[in-house]
Amino acid sequence: MAEVDLTSVGKVYPDGTRAVTDLNLHIADGEFLVLVGPSGCGKTTALRMVAGLEDISEGEVVIGGRVVNRVPARDRDVAMVFQSYALYPHLSVRDNIGFGLSLRKMPKAEIRAKVDRAAEILGLTEHLGRKPRNLSGGQRQRVAMGRAIVREPQAFLMDEPLSNLDAKLRVQMRAEIARLQRDLGVTTIYVTHDQTEAMTLGDRVAVMKKGELQQVAPPQELYDRPANLFVAGFIGSPAMNLLKGVLTGDAENPRLEIGARTLTLPPSVLTERPALASYLGRDVVVGVRPEDMEDAELTEAPEGTRLEAAADLVEAMGSDVLVHFAVEAAPVVTEDTKELARDAGADVPGGAREERTEIVARFSPRTRV
Ligand code: ATP
To answer: What is the overall mean pLDDT for the chain?
Structure first.
């Protein structure tokens, strides 16, 4: 096991495309770090540079104290798990799992013992004689994991390993990967575009956009204290409500003007972050999580904190109900307020009433300006 360090790492492809810029990451021994971001943000490229599958254009990658920039992939002592699993169709599960060890001319009895152990951990023992085509998607994924495990690498590098599975299996395998990584304690870098996967798996999550790192932090911190608008909008489902307005009033009585409406903000919005005082009189974006938007009637919210809005869509999701509103043309989503949903027309099949409902933004420490 090992620490992995990326220092000022950059990648420019031969055709001139810049995929990664000045990436700095320290992954601790045994840590599970998730690289997440939208398609094309450079996360796969970053992982492949650590794996040795792409040249490093700038900066340095260090694995277990050794600079690996010029070390070929096979000598980096890392195990990669791909989205496609990359299994050999003509080999049995046993031979697929043991393939890397055979290449290294490990004695057969030793390979057998290691493969048996990995198969037991992964629940594959009874399938060892089968060919990949006779396995389910989840089992194939486990074989790919098995191949990584038997190598006892310094680090696991995983590139969207769950994206070929259906939604239910993905959730199940996600839990299995989390358990496995915790039990084995192997340093892991995991790439995904799925923020739920990132939040549930990562000890820390690194959010990338257009080749640049936006923030790296434990999941809860990303959720509660996003570093910028991009992270605020990317992390969380349903996404954070972003209300555009002008910050007015003064430090004791801050207000937010959204179009023709004026909302009273709690002074803590400014006192907790003094830097915001310089934004008085300027355009701001206020972020409020959907679970912090409430029914104004139910919470007996005072005047001046209410937003009147027409619900334009109600989505019942079993445990939660999402209500979509339009506030000055900006979409706003609330969560978890069944009464509000009923008021807004949840009992009308497929739709919302034209009535206007009052909602209130609960400005909490989690509110971002
Ligand atoms: P995805 O989730 O879609 O795989 P990603 O975040 O993993 O996206 P990368 O695959 O790392 O992103 O790609 C980052 C950028 O580099 C993209 O603009 C992509 O088009 C570009 N790119 C990737 N591979 C090459 C290549 N071999 N040559 C030129 N440009 C490339």
So the answer is: 86
The answer, yes or no, to whether any atom of ligand 1 lies below 6 A from the CB of 193, is yes
Of 12, 17, 164, the residue with max ligand 1 atoms within 8 A of its CB, to mutate for a pocket test, comes to: 17
pLDDT beneath 70, residues of the chain: 1, 296-302, 318-319, 328-331, 336-369
Q: Is the CB of 48 under 6 A from ligand 1?
A: no
Residue 351 CA, ligand 1 centroid: distance in Å: 40
CATH superfamily of the domain spanning 4-234 = P-loop containing nucleotide triphosphate hydrolases (3.40.50.300)
Between CA 87 and CA 140 the distance in angstroms is 8
CATH 3.40.50.300 maps onto the chain at 4-234
Cβ atoms within 10 Å of 215's Cβ, excluding its own = 21
Within the chain, strands assigned E span 4-12, 18-27, 32-36, 58-63, 66-67, 78-81, 155-159, 187-192, 204-209, 212-217, 241-249, 254-258, 261-264, 283-288, 293-295, 306-316, 321-327, 330-335, 356-361
Q: 15: Cβ below 6 Å to ligand 1?
A: yes
Per-residue pLDDT tens digits for 87-128: 999 999 999 999 989 988 899 999 999 999 999 988 899 999
Check residue 277 and give its pLDDT.
81
Looking at residue 362, what is its pLDDT?
Answer: 60
